[in-house]
Amino acid sequence: MTRADLTTFDQAWERFARSLAAHSPADHAALRPPATAEEIAGLEAQLGFVLHPELRALLERHNGAAEPRSTGDTDPFPAGAFLPLGHRLMNMDEIAAQHRWCVGFKEDNLASGLWHEEELQGHAHQWVPLARPNDGGIAFVDHRPGETYGHVYEIGIGSGDIDGSEWGTCLAEFFDGLAGSLETGEPFLHYVPGIYEHPSGKHCVDWEIDD
Fold first, then answer.
1. Distance set, CA 92 to CA 37, 80, 206, 209 (Å)
2. 20 to 30 A Cα–Cα from 71, which one of 80, 129, 149, 151?
3. Superfamily classification of domain 3-209
4. pLDDT tens, position by position, 54-87
């Protein structure tokens, strides 16, 4: 996939970014500046393989989203956790650290005999973390060569839900789906966009599960 082939991703991200800015300027403002080419090369060296072009394109736009800061006596305002289940885009240091955890997770799974390498959990060393919430879950882009290459998954490690859910066959599909949901109010998969009102008077996107 070349730069010219990334038109669909570019369009999907721009649509999502516009929708996010319109519905929650605070969330949009939490997006960090781009990663440099040298930083991306360093991450790939730690991973041991090259990034999927769409994930590289995302990092070239934003190196994750900033962590919330305390507003005084109230709880921190959680702007930037604008993905379903409160996931926040990771920066590259966090991606590298979380990938090291994924490698150990894979080794433990194979040693236990619970999963085999052809299963999603069996090749966790080929996951590249994308975002995480506060409960120990992880959203990632699958980098295993084959039909799932580039797919976006979420696994709720902390909640014990480790079967995994597919959020999109690619990042373009994922962000386009989120944008459409923000624009129309219709669910993205089974997540419904809403607004969290902070005691400070600020607000940010909050996804609720549609039962």
1. 12, 16, 24, 29
2. 129
3. SMI1/KNR4-like (3.40.1580.10)
4. 999 999 999 999 988 765 656 788 899 999 999 9
